[in-house]
Amino acid sequence: MVEGEVTWRRLTEADFPLLRDWLLSPHVARWWHHETTPEAVARDFGPAARGEEPSEDLLVSLSGAPVGLVQRSRYGDYPEYIEELAPILAVHPETVSVDYLIGEVSLTGKGLGARVIRAVVDETWTSHPAAPAVVVPVSAANRASWRALEKAGFTRVAEGELEPDNPIDDRDHVIYRFDRPVADPVPTSI
What keyword terms does UniProt attach to this protein (predicted)? Predict the structure, then answer.
């Protein structure tokens, strides 16, 4: 288990060189399959960094040192994802999704991913008060990713075929869900 405080802030354009390094790392490149030229990183992450699109790109730190990225978005802001999921799982537009990476390979396999995911999910209930759940589709082949979701408290709710992020993967995906916690009933006195 990796010790330290997990925090995050919005990704800025000044973070793009670090993000690019992470995207070039084999353990990230395998699953993110992202163009890594500086221009491509700026093109794809710039709008969120500047607040021009509704998704959030969050630079995650451990005890103040950057270690990864979480992308968080509402399905309603990207209706094409609702449509793609519809044959497998109905998703309310206020439902949130997250994608994540641990950029520092030395910190993988130590439970940090699950801690980061859970921390962001717990905060999601405040920053997205209408969200009924967080739903995350993951390539069935990406065992480390779906195991991190399970360790963070997610439940597998469906399986089906979706477009893979990496064209070398097949279409098989597993879908995980974390429902908004129900508040404890307020005790009444007699």
Answer: Acyltransferase, Antibiotic resistance, Transferase
